[in-house]
């Protein structure tokens, strides 16, 4: 029994935009890999080094793309902290199952020694809330035609999952898997970017518009999600030696050119991206007997590839 | 800065069923803990030992409740395998980030030594598909009034998240976080329960109605989700020593009474469960400025408690 194939096949997808569910199956059902192999070079973009955070953990390297168009002040502050090596030596302090992995200064924990708090240097310690931004028709937006459970309209802007409410002139980044947000206290002006979290479970969309979202993990999210869960309240690690030390966090722009990560992200306004979404929406192959003909925003993954291995 | 509170407060919820979003905030905003503290004994149920799997991993104990009303033949087969100790010594072979953790016989992998396949004993090696069940108005069903992105109607039956389509006379278990399904090959009759998976990421609802779902992890899902991700294709572990050995899987009914897990699950048709769902739906407190007034099926968690620690 090739049980290895059991779920493998669950991922085989087909391009069936022109094939109704009750028609004959298409002769060829391209996989995401096949669709990506046919992509054109101009469909890929290289993230701006000013927007790319490189976090070194003992488990591996995590790359985070920042979204300055959605949270400009927070992103600027995070750039400053990375530039001044604020995050180096801090730690992952919380892994809350089916919710978030969070990192920051352990001394800021309730039981932490406040006298040991690391200085934020020239970064600001509080910022105005940037939970939504004014709706801007000029911001690129590729709508997801399927709609959304929570927001009037969703889609992708500049590589990020986005919701928008044109009636109320707002748009915002959504809490999908791998999205990165800014921890804060009750006061909306207490977030600075010194404490960040990444979503590692079912999208907690109720957080949307209640907290500043600043970016997305492009690569290495498994080093944040594949960690033992904290056993303290809310998933905080109870013992200091359970925390995972952060080696360093650098802005790619601050690294020598030859040390910058050579990655590319599929443009969310490209034909190949549209084909991938459509394939996921209309799965119809030997494994999928009942394609659902819908796809929700947070189930769409945005491909990233290593530019060095391109042939 | 009490950054420890940043996301802690994200979880503080309020009972605001009677409070409109634009009204004054309620004086008291009970947390899930407070709501549960006021629950009545009869709102909790003890899972039938015939439906409770106890899986011992090096990381800890995982409890899975089986759903015989939705996949009776698969559940019967799994009971047989547990009874005959089939799973003992098998392994977690795959941890696919944001998707599933899967366990079974490593010899069944593509590169496995088929001569070492463990016998299924008196269990069947293939079963008819049980992906949906006929709609039954007599099956308990507590509707989630918010609706669903994928299915005409969703709610909870006997403690499980369920979707149903009355027009087509079908109902089925949904692929929410922690739900357990049966790996199979392309042929729908190749699932047996010898290979199982648990969802550890954004709910892969497109799998609904395409695969047999047999239960839900009640406790210990963090021992399945908090594992290093497999680096092979589809998240399979590439080296045998990366796999996590399963100590044993027992049906609680096969254990001496004093070794059975003493847990209780909140009834999904109870007033306290309804209050928890409503609190999650209408979050309105000092942290949440924009309650979304909706909750999606897979964001609802079903509380489990240790009966031994009750006072």
TrEMBL record, chains A, B:
<keyword id="KW-0732">Signal</keyword>
<feature type="signal peptide">
    <location>
        <begin position="1"/>
        <end position="21"/>
    </location>
</feature>
<feature type="domain" description="PPIase cyclophilin-type">
    <location>
        <begin position="58"/>
        <end position="251"/>
    </location>
</feature>
<dbReference type="InterPro" id="IPR002130">
    <property type="entry name" value="Cyclophilin-type_PPIase_dom"/>
</dbReference>
<dbReference type="InterPro" id="IPR029000">
    <property type="entry name" value="Cyclophilin-like_dom_sf"/>
</dbReference>
<dbReference type="Pfam" id="PF00160">
    <property type="entry name" value="Pro_isomerase"/>
</dbReference>
<feature type="region of interest" description="Disordered">
    <location>
        <begin position="23"/>
        <end position="44"/>
    </location>
</feature>
<protein>
    <recommendedName>
        <fullName>peptidylprolyl isomerase</fullName>
        <ecNumber>5.2.1.8</ecNumber>
    </recommendedName>
</protein>
<feature type="region of interest" description="Disordered">
    <location>
        <begin position="104"/>
        <end position="129"/>
    </location>
</feature>
<dbReference type="InterPro" id="IPR044665">
    <property type="entry name" value="E_coli_cyclophilin_A-like"/>
</dbReference>
<keyword id="KW-0697">Rotamase</keyword>
<keyword id="KW-0413">Isomerase</keyword>
<dbReference type="GO" id="GO:0016853">
    <property type="term" value="F:isomerase activity"/>
</dbReference>
């Amino acid at each position: 029994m090739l049980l290895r194939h059991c779920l493998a096949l669950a991922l085989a997808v087909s391009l069936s935009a022109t094939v109704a569910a009750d028609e004959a199956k298409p002769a060829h059902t391209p996989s995401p890999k096949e669709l990506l192999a046919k992509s054109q070079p101009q469909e890929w973009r290289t993230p701006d080094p000013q927007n790319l955070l490189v976090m070194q953990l003992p488990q591996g390297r995590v790359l985070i793309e920042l979204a300055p168009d959605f949270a400009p002040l927070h992103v600027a502050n995070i750039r400053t902290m990375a530039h001044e090596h604020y995050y180096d030596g801090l730690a992952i302090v919380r892994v809350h199952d089916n919710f978030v992995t969070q990192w920051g200064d352990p001394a800021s924990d309730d039981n932490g020694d406040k006298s040991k708090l690391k200085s934020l240097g020239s970064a600001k310690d509080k910022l105005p809330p940037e939970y939504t931004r004014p709706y801007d028709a000029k911001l690129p937006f590729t709508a997801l035609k399927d709609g959304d459970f929570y927001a009037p309209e969703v889609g992708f802007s500049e590589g990020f999952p986005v919701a928008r409410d044109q009636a109320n002139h707002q748009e915002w980044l959504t809490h999908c898997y791998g999205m990165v947000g800014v921890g804060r206290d009750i006061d909306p002006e207490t977030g600075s970017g010194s404490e960040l979290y990444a979503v590692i479970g079912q999208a907690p969309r109720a957080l949307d518009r209640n907290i500043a979202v600043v970016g997305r993990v492009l690569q290495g999210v498994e080093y944040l999600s594949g960690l033992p869960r904290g056993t303290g309240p809310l998933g905080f690690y109870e013992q200091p030696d359970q925390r995972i030390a952060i080696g360093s966090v650098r802005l790619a722009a601050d690294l020598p050119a030859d040390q910058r990560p050579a990655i590319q992200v599929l443009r969310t306004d490209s034909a190949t991206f549209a084909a991938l979404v459509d394939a996921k929406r209309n799965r119809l192959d030997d494994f999928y007997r009942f394609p659902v003909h819908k796809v929700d925003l947070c189930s769409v993954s945005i491909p990233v590839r290593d530019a060095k291995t391109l042939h």
